[in-house]
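README: folding subset

This subset contains proteins for which both the sequence and a predicted structure token string are available. Records are stored as plain text. Below is the entry for Putative dehydrogenase (348 residues), shown exactly as it appears on disk.
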Amino acid sequence: MTRRGVLIGCGFFARNHMLAWRDLPDVTIVAVCDLDPAKAAAFSEEFGARAYGDAAQMLKEVRPDFADIATTVSSHRSLVELAAGHGCAVICQKPFAENLIDADAMVDACKHAGVELLIHENFRWQAPIRRIGELIDSGAIGQPQFLRLNFRHAFDIYANQPYLAQVEDLALSDVGLHLFDVARRLFGEVIRISCETQRLNPNVTGQDAFLAQMRHANGAVASVECSFFSHYAPDRFVQTLALVEGDEGSIELGDGYRLWVHRQGECLEEVVEPPVPSWGARPWNLVQDSVIAFQQHVLDVLAGRAKPQPSGADNLETLRLTFAAVQSARNGGRQVKLAASGEEPPSA
Ligand SMILES: NC(=O)c1ccc[n+]([C@@H]2O[C@H](COP(=O)([O-])OP(=O)(O)OC[C@H]3O[C@@H](n4cnc5c(N)ncnc54)[C@H](O)[C@@H]3O)[C@@H](O)[C@H]2O)c1
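--- output ---
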């Protein structure tokens, strides 16, 4: 059975969505939509989908199986509610919502309509992160006790996404939530967090670096570090480096996709670089492959073969954690407790 999808938002990152959908079997993007007619027309011409300027009209006329929302965050709530109202499954890019009230409303709208809601959290679908998850789940390092995630580079992200230069909590809201989602995927819920932010690049408005320290419900601790103004040669963009320790072993994910598993007095090395898609290129292959993997997962969910990873309801907790980090940073790094700790969670 071929699934019929539509894409809403034909901007920078949506091109990865379209190229990945084109590579996957049993799915066709039949229509695309953008407020900017030139962008919709360009995607229509490249991918052979009908072009629209209005999402409501497109959904009404096309009646798709799913809507893939790749717009920026301020439009997410209205578009998710619109798509859910048309009874189709919904995929929404991160950040899922600007605040928890909107995120709750979006989860409710999809629940009420009886449709799936998946959030495009592709970091947890990156090949090295999937491999670390498999190793932890298989018990290779025993009980997890320490996690470090490190995403630090000085790549010019503002060239393709100029709007990022104006985002106040930039590092936390752009990549921080991906890293928090990965931490939750690997180590489970977080019960408290403290966070410091820095504004390093003088040419951007917001805080472009952060350092967060977290305690998980399982007793493990985590350090999540992110900077968009850290200078290395060669630059490490778009890799996340990681260190995971358990009571029986450790996993190191280093530069160049080298992964070491230390256990039983031995160290085994693997190279976990994903393939470069036919339409892709290094260093973007890490991201491009993760988009393909996530979108294949969406098809598995629609076919009833998998549960959403992550669902909107799950991603609400990642958002809650991200807002808790923002709250902590604005209060001089003071610790914030989360719902899983049994105390009142922060609101945003
Ligand atoms: N998962 C990742 O790795 C990753 C990477 C980059 C960007 N993103 C996310 O993707 C989203 C889009 O980012 P981008 O850089 O591609 O932005 P962009 O500005 O290049 O594209 C967004 C497009 O959406 C269109 N749009 C806005 N509101 C619309 C509406 N109501 N109907 C139809 N079209 C509408 C805009 O005209 C624009 O063309 C953001 O939320 C961003 O955080 C995710």
